[in-house]
Amino acid sequence: MVKVMLVQVAKEELVHQRQPVSASKISVMTGVHRKDVTRLEISGGEYQRPANPIAKIVTQWQCHPSFTTKAGKPRVLECEGKESEFAELVASVNGLDVSSYSILYELERAEFIERRGKRVKLLARDIVHREDIQAGLQVLVHDSNDLISAVEENLFTESDHKNLHLRTEFDRIPLKKLDEAKQWLLEEGSAFHKRVRSYLSTLDL
Q1: Where a domain ends, among 122, 146, 171?
Q2: H or E stretch at 121
Q3: pLDDT (tens digit, 9 = 90+) per residue, 89-141?
Q4: In which domain, by residue range, is 114 found?
């Protein structure tokens, strides 16, 4: 919404000054990247997250009864052929728009899975981009947009249910305890998100 407002004000100012309206001029005036200006114009000012099937496929693998054990753990899936269990997993999330082999390659490249002959095992519970800087920065962009949208909704919209936006801060934790605190937060946060994914997967159409 902030970017939309900046772009709109810049357009109005250019029109008021009887100047040609262009993405380049708006970008210079607002600091909003020219590609973002064009994207906002095309989308009508609504932020649209780029499609990324990987996260949804991993979540489906972790949560859907068809792909988990009785104990709720991700099953080791057969991955050879267009009618394999892994292909069924991909199709259950993304239809036939993306090849299961493309998804398999990307998961293996990112070391999220382990190949065992004709079968594949999910290794990572949480997707963390360590080596792929571009992918990590894309996550940062998406997270920033989501945070801004959540705060804007809390501030500017009338709703009985607000977005969760909490902050916890301590400033006297000894340096020697920081690694312990980070590890605790990582484990607890990961476990909480697993519960969230399990719940939301029951609502996802």
Answers
A1: 122
A2: strand 119-122
A3: 999 886 656 788 888 988 887 788 999 899 999 986 666 666 667 667 777 77
A4: 53-122
